Amino acid sequence: MSSGEQVAKYDVAIIGAGFAGLYALHKFRDDLGLSTRIIEAGTGPGGTWYWNRYPGARVDIPSMQYSYQFDDALQQEWDWREKYAPQGEILDYVDHVVDRFDLAKDIQYNSRVRACQYDDYTGLWTLTLESGEKLVARYCIMATGCLSAANKPRFEGDDSFRGEVYHTGQWPHDGVDFEGKTVGIIGTGSSAVQAIPVIAGECKHLTVFQRTPNFSAPAYNEPLDPEYAKAVKADYKAFRQRGQESLVAWDIDMNEKEYAEMSPEEIHACLEERWKMGGLFFYGTLADLLTNQQANDVVSDFVREKIRSKVDDPGIADLLTPKTMIGCKRICADTNYFETYNRDNVTLVDISEQPISRITPNGLEVGDESWEFDVLIYATGFDAMTGSLERIDIRGRRGLTLKEKWNAGPRTLLGLQTAGFPNMFVIANAGSPSVLTNMITGIEQHIEWVADAVRYLQQSGLNTMEANLEAEDDWVDHTNEVASETLLLGCNSWYLGANIPGKPRVFMPYLGYPDYKQQCNEIAAEGYKGFTLSSTGA
Ligand code: NAP
């Protein structure tokens, strides 16, 4: 920084104006009275819901649960229109929150953070934006999201395509007109599962390039029943409490019985009942779904049969039937996904054996076969969790980069801090339940824990908090141990970084929200055991 350069100084800098960043701004500014600034790359708030505007995008957790619970008046006054809110409705909610808590004045849009550097002497973080502008803050809140660094795999010739190209996670704000057009889409993950039925209904022809089929249960989305909403609001507290006690931080109405405790007939009846509940409620079939191979097999086979029964052509049905275990990747919640392959204007191309060879000016080639279309869509997901952090040049003590430190995979204490990066707090990312839960609930828990920690520092006349290396190592071991008790290490998913070539294979999220929360609370009650609290700089 050249001498004399004017640099804005804040107590708290927050990167990202998604659900995490917005609540953090409200908490630090309005409850703790700290000067707080959000830096956001987009032109508006909403994070993942700002970027993911592809046709059919909607939440897979019921709207009445996928919302903030920190303010009762907010949850009483907001009326959800659909059982599973579409992207636009969620942005309406986000805009309402921004207005209600007067957040906009402290959000700097259109500003991507290029670098964050810690100063060992002053204990301050300097954030450098892509514009070159800098700002300084004592606390740095990484509200950067888990699924915000788009993964666009490189293919030979990919710049040569002459038609329109889109990524589901960076969808144009004005939408895409598919009428009369031929479309190719790469990927069949959650985004594609939602987008494919809608695009197929709008375009002339859709060709789907599938590497791995996915498990999906029908969402049965519908307008939200006002009587149901009224009943929930009458006792929202108890409703939320059930979510707080659930493994996944939302009320999934979990069957508490394990495979061995039920007869085959009972299991079948339970599966049929759960299938009618639809979507992610299907995770609640058997308590040991993700830990017992027999339990998983019976549930997987049930869904495989359901898929086969929906698709007319047995060859296509076979291609759409997943061979992996259910729950390896997040189960999708769909609307007519498998049925879409019965349409005359949809073609499924299996690229599991023979990958895409190259992109051409008019389409793409798979081995000797070529496919032509006007529009190419990458539904190829994200460099999940660590991607959004590692795309920023983050340097902690003595210039150590986060990239170097996480060379062999993310290392954190409680997912909240990483040793060598004092006062940098990561919200709902690697090392915490985050993506395995209702993200908003996980986010609120994190922000409240960090705000309490900062308040504790202030009350103690201190200003610096940093994870200890030893406690961090223990947490990493513990996270791995919890994951190793499940079946999730034995299959490929972005939870393990398996979708990004060269990414270290580490199970990133922590499974089990109530346990996690309890450990956070215990650590706080013991004066933030495992963290060093100190005073740095003036
Ligand atoms: P994803 O689940 O990672 O799916 C990416 C798809 O692209 C996969 O089918 C993948 O195949 C394919 N792919 C990637 N690279 C490829 C390549 N080089 N060649 C061919 N195919 C390739 O990404 P996503 O669908 O965007 O979903 C990511 C996560 O976002 C979900 O798991 C979910 O947590 C979240 N999400 C949630 C919702 C919701 O709430 N409703 C909606 C959308 C997304 P492989 O499987 O073989 O790698």
Structure description:
The chain is an alpha/beta fold and 538 residues long. The protein has 2 domains: 286 residues, FAD/NAD(P)-binding domain (3-Layer(bba) Sandwich), CATH 3.50.50.60; 193 residues, no CATH class. Helices cover 31% and strands 17% of the residues. Strands 1, 2, 3, 4, 5, 6, 17 and 18 form an 8-stranded mixed beta sheet that branches. Strands 7-16-8-9-12 form a 5-stranded parallel beta sheet, with helices on one face. The protein has a 3-stranded antiparallel beta sheet with strand order 13-14-15, with no helix packed on it. Helix 1 packs parallel to helix 13, helix 9 packs antiparallel against helix 10 and helix 13 packs parallel to helix 15. The longest helix has 21 residues. The two termini are 19 Å apart. The structure holds NADP nicotinamide-adenine-dinucleotide phosphate (NAP). The site of NADP nicotinamide-adenine-dinucleotide phosphate has 27 residues, from helix 5.
What is the element layout, followed by pairings?
Layout: E1 8-15, H1 19-31, E2 36-39, H2 48-51, H3 72-77, H4 87-100, E3 107-108, E4 113-118, E5 125-129, E6 134-142, E7 164-167, E8 182-186, H5 190-202, E9 205-210, E10 216-218, H6 226-234, H7 236-244, H8 264-277, H9 293-310, H10 314-320, E11 332-334, E12 346-350, E13 358-360, E14 363-366, E15 369-372, E16 375-378, H11 386-390, E17 393-395, H12 402-405, E18 424-426, H13 439-459, E19 464-467, H14 469-484, H15 513-525, E20 531-534
Parallel strand pairs: 1-2, 1-6, 2-3, 4-17, 6-18, 7-16, 8-9, 8-16, 9-12, 10-11
Antiparallel strand pairs: 4-5, 5-6, 13-14, 14-15, 19-20
Helix pairs in contact: 1-13, 9-10, 13-15
Bound molecules: NADP nicotinamide-adenine-dinucleotide phosphate.
NADP nicotinamide-adenine-dinucleotide phosphate binds at residues 58-60, 147, 153, 168, 186-192, 194, 211-212, 329-330, 351, 356, 379-382, 435, 494, 499.
